[in-house]
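Exercise (ungraded).
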Amino acid sequence: MADAVIVVALLLVAATATVAVATRDPARQALVLSVLGVVLAVLFTVFQAPDVGLSQLAVGSALTPLLLMLTVRKVRRRGRDEEHER
Amino acid sequence: MSRRVRLWLVLAAGTGLAVLLVAACLDLPNFGGDRHPYGDRAVRASIARHTANVISSVNFDQRAFDTLGEMTILFGAVLGCVMLLRQTRDEHRARPRPAEVAPPVRRYALLVLPVALVTGIYVVAHGQLSPGGGFQGGVVAATALHLLYLGADYGALERIRPLGVYEVGDALAASAYVVLGLAGLLGSTAFLANSLLPYGTFNTLSSGGTVPLLNAAIGMEVACAVVLLLARFLDQAVEIEKENGE
């Protein structure tokens, strides 16, 4: 039973990570990364490492995507300003 | 050194590394086994010092010096970001206009904000008892504050977030960790030794000697560092603009 849960969690991580690599738009990639963070947190919890799971949940699914989104917003805004000036 | 010799050197070193790694892997405990030589010793040491969460005992007692290194890395990384993302001479700040927020988003954010904040503080405070600790709880508490940006706007967030206070808090918490380590020198013979305080009753908030104190210092350091980091990114994304006509 525990083995089945581990296999499902590993497959979910592999699938989500593949989608994250295949997504080319950074803003969407940030959202996929956030889902990947949740799935990884589940995997770590299944492996009986809830401390690491909590870190992953806080950093991987909240902080990193947020920093990525803010960076994308800054870069896009700068691009729009330069187009506006021309 | 010719190309040929270099190639042989790489091949020889690579083969040696591969042999050592495979030999080490063959000696690893089996996957999912319930006995582990290091684990058994760590659990014994942790229980001897009345720390219910063995991970916290490893982080803040048995390997407290490693945690000092990790904290310094975070401190340095955030300092670097703050320097890189500061407002330069050819940029100015534009006050962001008050933003329109959809009522369900506003309700959700203002409802979840206090819950998330208390959860973060709870995770820090119970670091020595249950999964979690200073790092995890600090990140949760710091990101919780930013729900105000979702629920209201950037101006509201800036009012509850005086950056100077967080800068001082970050530095104070980092030095508190070092000072607690030096206090270990007074109590016994080693830096960061956990022999200064009584170990207390097992599974209570005050158990574990210096573990709860070091844990709290890390929590404060991480929370302040994350707030400062996000503040710089938000400033760049929302407020700071390049001067026109440059």
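Further reading is listed at the end of the chapter. For now, observe: The radius of gyration of chain B is 24 Å. The interface with chain A takes residues 32, 53, 55, 123, 131-133, 135-136, 139-140, 143, 146, 226, 229-230, 233-234, 236-237, 241-242, 244 of chain B (CB under 8 Å).
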